[in-house]
Amino acid sequence: MTANLTAEQSSPTAQPAPRVYIILVNWNGWTDTIECLESVFRQDYPNYRVVVCDNASRDGSLGHLEAWASGRVPYVPPRDSPLRHLTTPALNKPLDFLVQDRASAEQGGVGTDPALLLVDGGGNLGFAGGNNVGMRYALAQGDADYVWLLNNDTVVDPDCLTRMVRRLRDHPGPATCGSRILFYADPDMVQALGGGRFNRWTAISSQSLGRFLPADQPVDTVAIERQLSYIVGCSWLLPRAYLDDVGLMDERYFLYYEEVDWVLRAGSRYALCYADDARVYHKEGSSTGTPTGVRPSSLLSDFYIFRNKLWITRRHFPLGLPSVYLATLIQAGRRAVRGQWDKAWLILKILLGKKEFRHS
Q: Which end of the chain is less packed: N or C, by CB atoms within 10 Å?
């Protein structure tokens, strides 16, 4: 499941490659997750483990993942996939894998070290909560040097992790790293260059940095890094020290703005790096594969976006609350003009203090 070592890594006097834990969160997206894993286990990086946390899927995802990993069910790539070359031929099975509940995983798997750990999260923990389960497992194992948060609805180039680790190791100080993210359905077009920008006065976060550029268009990496406010959780490599120093993601956000909050909590202690030659292909807009089941156009989506705008502003930029309230009120008005009265009313209730939205 690992390719040949580089000359430096295979030298008797070379230090071993840092251990990386690759963490995916799944919710009713086992077909996406399997396709992702078929590419992940082709990484040429020599020292990694993979953790998949399932957020209480209703489609039998854990059973499907176990059947695939054991070899009982063969991998069949999507017929319309433009990236079959990154996932075929199918990996040799069975893989070295285990299935555990959340409590066991967060204690470090009770002395186990499988190449693939499938975790039953026991509930819909959200994006932050699902990733935190994987990170707690990595921390409890005691040998984690880095964690790579990776969306389950992605496919990755075989040298992606190697290039991201190299970028971080070459950086002169503490840092985290993003990658070049391309559209899965249109691999010749950029979706995001590493991360996005955050406006503290409107609490609007934008992942449009480099969006729709040709996939092979050269960019000034230093200039990109200067523009980054945060790294998108679709592909984010972090050193162990970041988790020890800053802590894990704030699970209260559930969805949206947890990445921005995580970076703001770190302050200036960690630079935001960008590995331009590390490529990830993302199925943007996939609803069944999201880690929470929240559709981008749904009431739940609006609830978390607007509630979390206020949360992050109160926490980090309280002086910006008046302008954020005004911007949010304008958004409510726009929804009313479009006849989306339920969404407009929801936003008004958030402005009046609504903090929770009942969902499964």
A: C
What is the DSSP code (8-state) at residue 107?
Answer: T
Q: Which residue type does 188 have?
A: D
Q: Provide the sign of the torsion angle of the four alpha carbons 180, 162, 108, 68, taken in this order.
A: positive
Contact indicator for 117, 105 with CB cutoff of 8 Å: yes
Contact assessment for residue 55 and residue 126, using Cβ atoms and an 8 Å cutoff: yes
pLDDT tens digit sequence for 15-51:
789 999 999 999 999 999 999 999 999 999 999 999 9
Angle of helix 299-316 relative to helix 258-266, nearest 10 degrees, comes to 10
Q: How far apart, in whole angstroms, are the C-alpha atoms of residue 292 and residue 310?
A: 21
Structure tokens at 144: 């984690």
Residue 11 lies in a domain: yes
Give the whole-angstrom CA distance, residue 206 versus residue 11. Answer: 44
Residue 30 CA from chain centroid, whole number: 16
Q: Report the amino acid identity of residue 157.
A: D
Question: What's the domain range around 335?
Answer: 299-351
